[in-house]
Amino acid sequence: MKIVLCDDDPQVLQELGALLFGFFEERKIQVACCAFADGESVVSEMVSYDFAFIDVEMSGMNGLAVAKLLQEYNPNIIIFMVTSYPHYLDDSMDLNVFRYLTKPVAQERLRRGMDIALQKYHRQNQSILLDTVDGGSLPVFTKDILYICIHGRGTLVKTKAKDYLTHTPIKQWATQLNADLFSGPHYSYLVNMQNVLSLRKKEVIMLDDDAGNPVAVAIAQRKYEMFKKSFARYIGGVK
Questions:
Q1: Which is nearest to 192 in space by CA: 158, 156, 239, 226?
Q2: Which of 38, 114, 115, 121 would you label with 238, given CA atoms 20 to 30 Å apart?
Q3: Looking at the DSSP assignment, which residues form a beta bridge with residue 130?
Q4: Each residue of 142-158: pLDDT tens digit?
């Protein structure tokens, strides 16, 4: 697990680093942590981090620009913006940052946020083993699955990169996969909430590939309310 801290105040870097070190030590989680005093140094490394704690106002490249570039290296990065200026909240939300922490960072608030962030991290990095119709087996990250649908006597697993045909029935997928992440808008589909862009009355709009092209999955009228509640629970769980 890789973490980056970026703040032009050495005291903030030291205090935040100590809080995070204590948090991960208690949970017996090994991490690699890098600290930088300016945004240019962070992005020049071209490293994919799992977590980032970034000051908003810095000389040179500001924290929002740093966050945007880090998301290009790893779209699943979990970002905490750290600042004394709350008027940047809207801009941070536009980047879909995970938390907005005000200075001085409160230990309990940081710990609560990190506990939820770790849940999200583990969800994003879960994998399943696909047994394909050609006799092969391969691991696939659940975060890369868009949806699973009935195909003949088996199912089609559509990922961002490729489609896979399996003999596994959709009812088996429904019991095997995390019910908080996968829900059925239609009897023949299981949709991955992590890749839903928007929810409409008659369809779910999803990311189709890594370029962000959208694809629509139909919602059965009798399934709409149930699916809407599932999506609302998911959104509430990751914020």
A1: 158
A2: 38
A3: 138
A4: 888 999 999 999 999 99
